[in-house]
Amino acid sequence: MGLSIFVTATNTGVGKTFFSYLLCSSLKDLGYKVGYWKPVETGANPYPQDAKLLSELLNQPLKETVTYTFKLPLAPAVAEKYEGEKIDIERLKEIYRRKVEYFDILVVEGAGGLAVPVKGNYTYGDFAKELDLPVLIVSDAKLGTINCSFLTAFYGKSLNLNLVGFVFNRFTGEDFSERDNPSVVEELTGLKVWFKIPETDLRGYKLEKETLKEFLKKIRG
After folding, report:
1. What is the pLDDT of residues 39-96, one digit of tens each?
2. Fewest 10 Å CB contacts: which of 36, 112, 144, 149?
């Protein structure tokens, strides 16, 4: 069985897909057979942009990259009510189990954050817990991230999730809050900030290799 990483975030629009792309690209460069999977993508109008971006990077068929798509930009459980197609949680679990056997490393990307409902009151946090997924939290580096990062970690810990750390997106270090935010979040949560990603061209940036290797050791336990 390969490794898996569940990429979540403190909110929507923080940069989960941006980081997932960098992670998959960097792992691919290290020689791993990398897979990416988004169980549900909403706001897929006219097509699932997140999944398409990663399917092109990894040469995966789009239908293998995302399972359920909805046009409305809503939480999956809400989009399901309006658009008719029903999400089958057991089907998603079975797809995950098949994929994690095939790839060296499978990157699974959620929608929004851990408390976002996938179906009914079943959340992405529940999904990560039932499959025992290592959870990496993507945060925005800007002012206000301390509260959002702490609350996400607090919720994840309340579910006994395997939280493996943070990524800070849009990091410039140009003001006091940005420079101090990573260390404050680490102190408050006890979780490491592994990567601080600047605002950069998606295809012109790679994750630092030694840090990535150290991160993989953390995932392996």
Report:
1. 999 999 989 999 999 999 999 999 999 999 999 999 999 999 999 899 999 999 999 9
2. 144
Q: Is 205 helix (H, G, I), strand (E, B) or coil?
A: coil
**5 contacts: CB under 8 Å, gap ≥ 6:** 23, 105, 106, 107, 108, 133, 134, 136, 164, 219
Q: What pLDDT, in 10s, does the model give residues 115-139?
A: 999 999 999 999 999 999 999 999 9
| DSSP-derived secondary structure for 146-176 | HHHHHHHHHHHHHTT-EEEEEEEES----SH
Q: Work out the average pLDDT over 161-184.
A: 90
Q: Which of 28, 38, 99, 142 is catalytic?
A: 38
Starting at the edge strand found earlier in the chain, the sheet holding 3-9 runs 66-69, 34-41, 105-109, 3-9, 134-140, 162-169, 193-196
Q: Write out the residue range of the structural domain in which residue 131 sits.
A: 3-220
What's 88's domain CATH number?
Answer: 3.40.50.300
Rounded to a whole number of angstroms, the CA Rg of the chain reads: 16
Residues 190/192/198/199 CA torsion (nearest 10 deg): -60
Verify whether residue 38 is a known catalytic residue.
yes
Torsion of CA 117, 119, 122, 126, to 10 degrees: -80
| CA 36 remoteness from chain centre | 10
DSSP for 131-148, please give it.
TT-EEEEEEE-STTHHHH
pTM greater than 0.70: yes
**Residue 176: its pLDDT value, please?**
78
